[in-house]
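Just curious: can you write whichever protein you like plus the matching structure tokens?

***
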Amino acid sequence: MSEADRRRVDVREDAFHPRYVVWELTLKCDLACRHCGSRAGRPRSEELSLAEALEVLDQLRDAGTQEITFIGGEAYLNPDWLHIVRAATERGIRAGLTSGARALTAERCQQAAEAGLKSVSVSIDGLEETHDTLRAVKGSFKAATAAIAHVKAAGMHAFANTQFNRLNLDELEELAETLFALGIQSWQVQLTGPMGRAADRPEWLLQPYEMLELIPRLGRVAQKAQGRGVTVNAGNNLGYFGPWERWLRVHPYLGCSAGRHLLGIESNGDTKGCPSLPSGPYVKGNLRTERLDEVWSRLTFARERTTEELWGHCKGCYYAEVCKGGCAWTSHTLLGKRGNMPYCHHRAETLQKAGRRERIELAEQAPGDPFDFGRYRLIEENAP
């Protein structure tokens, strides 16, 4: 047995290691989404070469990575993406894709399946008019829904993902029916976070008190979905601990997983504990110049997180020891630091019983860089 194989065997299931990786292959994109957190469009300067990507894959294999989801920008616009998918598969790592799917043709899907790609999650953020508005390209809804059929025809698992915001909230149930009719197997739902281009449009963001409406509606949809063989899964920035949790999470929520079992890689090699985290405060190294184990050793905030960093309503919450402030990405990009997460169903319900609610208000504009954020005021007031 080689030393690399021995290291891989030594990785225990319960040990902190990058079990699941989300890898941005390029920031180049064929859409111009008005709510894009990374402000994708043009590629980053000095994106990883194929040789560098293969070296990263070797290190991920040795670290015990079981699954990689490739993203962008648009991952298929990286000219080496099929080589990278094939190389991941050859190393025993399950490969998936998350895509806006503007040009995810039948031919591309067949090539991807032959390279070893197992699943594709197509981003669909509303019915046709709303989706095309958010994606800033007319016809993007038709392309995305057609891509689901192409994925299935190629023999891959077809998933969907949706960000909820003020533009598409009223379409929730109809959108769910549309996606289920297309034959998806799983639907990931989350909130549009206050980062990137979405930070420039505060009027599109849901208010914290709207969790009182959103979560029960999602829960009822998830109940019906189970009878149709579809799993509805709430993302990390949507929660927590209310009566609908068992319908919206495959596993109980145990807090932020950044740098515990999750790793995010940007297309230039910059590395952080979660792909959604803003780059500035959370990139802790670059895989072009450092080895993965060295960078991983610095991605420790979620491993070492205690209730000491909690503030606001999170500090005195009944679930503080388990949740530890929820999604670091959303709280940091909203309020400038983690430890206080307003988008929480339990919190909204607790405030409602006291006749109170929270809302956000833009205080400082985002500078305009990839994965950037501004700052919001969190206002607590009497509920009308």
About this structure: The two ends are 67 Å apart (CA to CA). DSSP finds 14 helices and twelve strands in the chain.
